[in-house]
Every structure is written in C-alpha cells, then in structure tokens.
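Lecture notes, unit on protein representations.

Consider one protein chain, 284 amino acids long.
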Amino acid sequence: MDYVLCDMSYVDVNGLSLYYEEHGESTGASTATPLILLHGGFGTGDMFGPVLAGLAENRRVITADLQGHGRTADIGRPLRFETMATDIAGLITHLGLPRADVLGYSLGGGTALRLAIQHPDLVRRLVIASNPAKRDGWYPEVRANFDQMGRHLAEPFKQSPMYAVYEKVAPRVADWPVLLDKVGDLTRQDYDWTGNVPAITAPVMLVYGDADSISTEHITEFYRLLGGGLRDGNWDGSTRPASRLAIMPGRVHTDLLEAPGLAAAVVSFLDTETLVPPPMGMPG
C-alpha cells in the first residue's frame, strides 16, 4: 500500500519553530513504534523520498527539517549536533511518544547518535546511515572539503540541486550564506563519541555505501564498539550481536538513500522482535 501524508506542522522547541511531517497508512493503524527520519546537510525531510513509501507502509513515519534547513528557519545559535538532538527530543515529547525509532542520514546521523547518547530513554532503535562516530572517521579529502565550507561558496552553490530545494521551501532564502557558514563551522568541529558508543542502550544498525565518505577502518571500529564483528555468530545465530551492519553495493555517500533494498533492510531491523535469538539445541 502506498503511504499517505497525514499531517504537516510546526512545533516550538528550544526557541526553534521546527517543521515536521507525518506519513503512514494512517495515524493509528499500526502498532509499530513510530520512526523519525533526520536528513543530511543542506537537505530536508524530502531527502527520504526514495525510501519513504517502503518505510511508511506499515508504520507512522515523521520527517523533521533540522535547524536552518528546509522549512525550519534558523535562529541565533550555532549549529551543533547536541542542540539539534535536544530539538528532536522536544519533538518526540511534543508528539506524546514514550519512545521512537530514529534513522539519521549524514548530518542527521550525527544528530540521531547524539539523541541516543543524550536521551537514551527516548530511542528504542537507532539507524545511523553514512555518518561516523568521530570526525577522523571521514576520509581526509572529505575533511578538507569541510574545512573550505562557508559563505564564499554561496553563489557557486546556487547552481546545485541542494540550493534549488532550499530556495523553494526556506522561510528566509536570504539565509543561504548563513547556512553555509554554520554547516562549515559545524563540520570543522572536532569530535569523538567513540567512548559513548558502547553505552548506547538501543540496538543500532549502521548503513554505509561500499564507496562511502567514511573510511572502512572506521566503519569496522564503529561496529565493533557496538559489539559486532567480534566473533562468529554461531550456527543458530545465538551469539549474533543485537546491532547490525549493512553495506549497500555500488553506493557513495550522496546516493545511499537510493540504494535498492535499503528500506527493506531497515524495516527488517526495526520489526524483528528479538534481535539476539535464544540458543537452540543441536539438530538430531
């Protein structure tokens, strides 16, 4: 069944008027935990268009436009993963959800990761797509591009698809140079959350393209911190970790959300009742 748009609205959180949309079969038809989708840098919730129907087929799905992005106007504070995570915690509380599943892509992945670290009681399951747990997880050439980001690129970037989206929906299109400055400042900040990762209480799924902007060494490190890749899962899966790793073949950072099978992989992770199966007896 195709998803339908159920609602679109704003909520005031932390001085921010945060735009969000609700999608799904209907607002009350499914018993599945609602899923919140957090987009990448310079994007909007519409970025999840390629996978939205698959994700929303049997569950309530909420997309949110993060600070300064899409239909959410910027406010006078720096762009930081920690504050955006607090914004999403406010959205979850506003929606009256005891917990939510959260999928974050790229910049939204950093926000989702901080949400699980700062507000563990609000996150049931977490999907991190194409984002590292520390800045050094990005390849050096990617970090070099981050270092150059700023308003001096505002005019050249007006020829890009990301500006076309921004121009269409932003409450204040003149803030475009400000957004480039703030994203540049954010991505130049050094961070390392690997010490927090083992304490995350929610099962986590990591998703990357096989030619992603995050190094394979860091992907392995991240997964190991979540208990994955440490040993054989056993013939019956009884020692398989609760967290999962998905590598999308033939995909880079910018087209990961278009990967065939991505929605199905995420839905399987979210819907599996017991992620670590009980031990089984040997076959007779």
